Structures are given as structure tokens and as C-alpha cells.
Amino acid sequence: MKAIRYLAATLLLALLLAALWPGALTRTPYDRQFRELPNAPVSRQFPLGTDELGRDRLSRLLYGTRVSLLAAPAAALLSTILAALVGGLAGFLGGWFDRAAVALIDLMLSLPWLFLLIIVRAMLPLNVPALVSVLLTFGLIGLLGWPSAARIVRAGCRTLRCSDLVLQARACGLPRGRVLLKHVLPNVRPILTAQFRASIPIYILAEANLGLLGLGVADPLPSWGNLLRPLESGLAPDWAAWAPLILMLVVVSCLYLTQSSKVVVQ
Amino acid sequence: MKAFLAKLDCGAGTRACRVETRLDAFRGLRTPRSKVPNTHAPRSKGIVRPKSVDTSVDAADTSVRATAVVVLALLTLACSAVAATGAQPGGELRFCLYSEPKTFNPLLVADTSSEAIRYMTAGVLIRVNRQTQELEPSLAVSWRVVSQGRGIAFKLRQHVAFSDGTPFSAEDVAYTMHTLFDPSLHAPTADSFHAGGAAVKIETPAADEVTLTFPTPVAGIERLFDQVGILSSKSPRKEMASLGPFYVAQYKPGSEVDLSRNPYYWKRDRQGLRLPRIDAVRLYIQQNRDMELIRFQRGDLNIMSAVSPELFDQLQARMPAAVRDLGPSLESEMMWFNQSPKAPLPAYKKLWFQSREFRRALSAAVNREDLCRLVYRGHAHPAEGPISPANRFWFNSGLKPHRYDPAEALALLGKAGFRLQDGQLYDAQSHAVEFSIVTNAGNQAREKIAQMIQQDLKAIGIRLNVVKLDYSAIIDRISQSLDYESCLLGLTNVDLDPDAQMNVWLSSASNHQWNPNQASPATPWEAEIDRLMQAQGSELNPARRKAYFDKVQEIVSQEVPFLYLVTKNALVAVSPSLQNADPSVLRPQAVWNIEMLALTQEVAKK
Questions:
Q1: Does the residue A155 lie in any domain?
Q2: With contacts defined as CB-CB under 8 Å, which chain A residues touch B441?
Q3: Which site in A11, B99, B157, B262 is 20 to 30 Å from B206, CA atoms measured?
């Protein structure tokens, strides 16, 4: 088990390095269309060939990996912070705030998030550069993804609120804010870490789903979502299998690492 | 030869009557013999009733026996003759509809699936031949336009009956037209007649004559009757009684629609054989085109319509004899800029979009040849204007697609006060030229087009942001909020006549996309288009109408309110087992001559 975790971590690290320095593997811009060379086979210039518009597949795969590997953790961080805030306060304060937070969490969980994402995306400003569209896409995913994590954090904080540790701190006259920051949150940190790690593969897949519907990161910036588009047809060309293969490896690796963190929490 | 033909006729007649009996049993309806048209009655009498033949044999009537022997011999010869041609009457034709049909009422058709079913089931007075694009008599044997274009008089075909045996007469036409113009029905087809709520006078001077008089002249009135399926005024089956080659026998929502051969269909082929040749049509409701391809390759389906270029190429590699590229279709892709003064856009952007030089420059900057080659794999042509070359009469052959010329584009932009500096284009007030284009998410071809335009415009210093939205969000933006900068969508001209495009070209129209619902024309050229469209709409002489509409096309080509990009080719796949297939670019493409289609012996027997 430990060996698999090391393997997963190594794989993620290697992919991250390749995505951060794509220039080491290819010098072709991801958006340049070599229109005279559409669907070109593997060659020295194009190690994975070109797509139907003549763009370098390797370059697009590396830049797409960069987008997903950097933006998904950022979105996971955003949703974990929101979960910590809402769930932590609800669990710790209790009373009307807890009831309101639980109602909000239930409401958010009952919403069909995919449709919600599509609706919210349609309401956003149109004239935004591709990079901003990445932030918007993952920002939305992060903003809509906190409720399930918040519920777990709330449960953890509720348990802690009645614990001897917190009772003693409050008996010593520590203000509520300080108790929360110094004693409660550090104790739910393993939960937050596990939620953060578990969210990353979920958000990668969420972007891939949105991209598959054509609603993810804007062109010409690649992401795993829009790289998966050719797979929409069951008769997709062979090269398209690279993107789902890497996506699968990353998701599995993330899940293995998450499991290890859960063991730590337990 | 004459004797040989008579044999064939006899064989087909037998089959037709057998089918009729089976279908009646299926529907739980027994067709009264008295209602069978006179022309068909003798054939039915002689061959269909097996009981009466048996009785006569038992009675040892020698003359009847002799007749039976001769008929049998002729039947055998007929069957062998049919077998020699390879085509077999009967069998089931199978293909897919790509959406659920919304209605079976021929007057309420507004979607493509219902339209295909209407074509195969409903009888019309006049039919547009999908291959020649000429008008042909159908239920009306002749017609003439009267009252200076305000009316039309039909002479109807006699001895015709609906699929349940109810006779067809002028009363049915009158009933259909009354129903069509009933405001409570909201029939989409009625809009084409521009009756505008005013009463349409319908007269039936004889059982086979109908005259319709409209409040105002209707240009190209005859063509409109291709879309008007005649209903029965007397049949208990109401709109399900059909005059077309087939009738709807069964509908399984979400799964399939089964059509059965209309035993009373009036049309015969040149040899006098009763049509249609196929016994049944099974229409699978199937959205997944990949599944459709697999089933077609397996031989489960006989036809694939509107095949995508990717599937076409794959199929061409495996079944080269099955695929057919029919050339330019009526479908094109285009983009336009939001020129509406009401649009919530910065004033300087509105100035760009309202500038003719800006629009012409962008049109010159788009490489249409590359779009055809890369996005449509060569199965498309650079678009010339609003009318595709597939529309033979109305296409203005004098127009040429805008040439790809980035240098000319920059020169035009320079004239309009734009300047290129460090690879970025700026307007006269030093605003960097950057705008967005919206298109519908999920349409891969449009997404690729947008990406290619993005690179083409980058070459002249323009930054284009591609935004993919779901379809309803786009419709809301382009028709309600007007909160968009440019849009990339497709256009399908269902009707060949330009009169159907009034709602696009008139400046007051809601579908005048670049600047809809204008109180008065915003520009002199839009005023001129208004005048020309109204002139062609009230003119009855086709040549003069064409001259007016040619001028409209020229103005559109010069002023570029729409940047027409590509005209897609019509791609179909027809199984080699299907005989007499002659697909057309007009809908319903491969089945426009469904009466004549036949399956090979082997497939028909299955």
C-alpha cells in the first residue's frame, strides 16, 4: 500500500513538473494551428501528432494538464475554506446560526449542480480572456462545492464543542473566537486536509464534465475537459485516449493519497 | 410487352390487397367494400377474396377454374420478372428520426421529425419535386392562379381515397383550409399564406374543384401547398387518415414510429403498378449518431440522413458504395455583429459593428477555404450569401464568396480609422479591438469554426473571445436582452421561396438579427432591402421577383450584416440493398421518392 502511495505521489509530481515546464518537451504553442498538417501522425516535430485543426497534441496535453492540476487544487482550497467557515461556525456556535447553516447546506446539496453551473456560467460576462475563464470555471466549481465538506466539518466541531478540551478553555475565560481559532480548528485540520485532497479529483472531473459539454475553459486554452471532446463520439481517433488515460491516472493517484490522509485522520 | 406489363400489375395488385386485409385487422377497422374507389374495386374482387375463389373451385365451374389457372400462371411469370430486376415489392424500410415527433397532425408540423412523417403520410395538392425543384401535380391534377394572385383554383384528382377507405373530395380540401386558417389552431403553415386573420374565401363549385381566395396577393402561392397535408372531413380516424403512400400504424414514444403501406394510395408507376413498393417503414427515434452508424453498418438500417463529415469519412472507408455527397445543401454557418442601438455595449464597440468597412474587413480576414477543409473535411463550400446554390432558382450566381485577403482586411480597417500597432489593432480612439463571439455549446463544428476565426483575426490584431453557451441562453441574449457582441450560428432555409425569409430581412422583423424590431430602417440599405422584399412579395411574375431578390442578395453581400461562412454539403448514406434511391439535398433527402423505393429481394424477404 505504501509503495502504491509513493508511486501515485511520484506520478503526480512528474506530471506537475511536465505541466509547469512544457518547454522542456515541446516548443510549439498550444494554440498555433498548422492548417496544412491536420491530423498529422507522430513525428519529431509533433511527438503525439496534431489534432484536426493542426495543433500540437503534446503541447495541448501539457498545457491542459497544467490548467487542471493547478486550478483544481485552487478550487478545492476555496471550497475547503468556505466549508471551514460555514461548517466550523455552525458546529461551534450552534443555535440559530447552526440551524440556518444546516438549512443552507441542505439547500445547496439539493440543487442539481451541473445545471446550476450552466446557469451561472450563462449569467457571467462574455468578454473575458481565456485565462479569466479558467478562474471563473474553477471558481464557480469551488464556490458550489463546499456544502458536503461543511457538513463533515460541522459534525467535527460539534463534537469538539462539547469536549473537555474546549470546556476547559472556556472555563479559563478564553474568548469564543480564540477558542475556535486556537483549539477547535487545529483539531479539525485533519478533516479539512482530507476534504481538500478528496475535492481535487472531484473538481478535475467536474471541469472535465463541463468541458465535455463545451462549457468549461474557453478556447483556445486547453483543459482536460476540452481535450476529451473528441471522445464524445464513440468512434474517436486513437490519440484522444491520451487525455482520459492521464485523467484517470491523476484521479486514481489523488484518491490513493486521500485514502492515506484518511488513515492519518482515523 | 403489353401482356407482360399486365402480369406485373396483377402481381402487385394481389400484394396490395393482402396488405390491406392485414392492416385492417391490425387496426381493428374493417373497410367497407362500398367505400373502395371504383378503379380499385375490380382488382380486389378478382384476387383478394380467397373465400370466393375457393367456393368457385368447389363448384367446379370450369370457366372460373380456367381463369384461376391463367391468373396463377401470370402471377408466376410476374414474380419471376420482379425477381429478375433484383428489387422485391414489400419489405420494411428502416431509418432513424433524430428527435421525438411533436405531432402527427399535418397542419401543426414545426419540427423535422414530424415533417418527415408528414411527407410520407400526408397527401398534398401540389408537390415540389425535390430533385428538379419544379412543381408537380399531386392530389390536384391542375391548378391556375386567379384574381391577380389573390386566389388559386384547383381541379382535383378523382377516385382517390384515404388510408381507411374514405373517399377524397373537394369537401376535404375545404375542411383542411378552414382548419388551417382557424386562429385557435395556431398552425405554423398558415403563417406562410399571410392571411393575417382576414377571412379566406373557400369555394367548392364541384366535387372535384376548389377555389381559394385570399385577402391579398400571395407570391409563389402554389409552392405553399407542398406543406399542406389534406385532412379528411368525414373519416372517423380524423388526421390519422392519410392520403400519402403510408399511414401511421403504431407509435411507441421514445422508441419508434411504424408506418404501413396505404392500400388506397392513388399513385402508380409507369408500368401501372400500384405504389408504394415497400410494405412498411420503421422509424427509430435515435439521437446517438454513432449508434446509428453501427446499426447501418450491420444492415439494420437502410438510410442515414444528415451524416456528419466525420461519420461520412469513416463510412466511406468501410462502405464506399453506400455514401453520397450530394453537394451544397440549404444549411450554412454564419456570424453577425450586434448593431442594435439598444444593446448594452460600449458606444465605441457599437461604432465598430455599425461600420461597413469593419464588417467587410473581418469577412476578408476569415479563411473560408480552411473552414471547409478542416472543419468539414472538404464536404462544404465557402458561402456566397443568404441563398445556397442548392436553391437553383433563387440563388444569385453573380455573387462570389468574399476572398480571404488579410492585407485587404487591414487596408479596409485603415480606411475606417483603425491602426495596427505591435500586433494589436486599435480604433481611432485608441481602444484595443477585442470582442466576444457566442455560439452554442456542444456543437463541435461551430466550436472549431470559432477557434479558426479566432486565429484568423489574431493575424490582423483582433482578440476574439469565444464563449460557448447553452442554446436557450443564446436565444435569450440575441432576441431579448441583446447582451452580446457577435454570434455564430447556423441557418437552414427550409422553404426555397424568399417570401419565407421576410421575418429576417424586413427591418421591423424580430428575426432581423443584427438590429431587430426597428421602428424605421436604421440605414438606407436596410430601407432598400425593405422595399425590395415588399416588392418581390407582391409581384407575381417569377422573373421579376427573382430580379428583386437578386438585388437583395447583392446588398447583403456588400453591406455584410451577416458574414456567411460555409455552405455545408448534404451527406447521406444509402444501403446498397435499397433500390431506386436518388437522394436530394432538399428534405427529406433520401426518402423524397419513397413510393419508388424498393428493397432487394434478399432484404425484402427478411
A1: yes
A2: 213-215
A3: B262
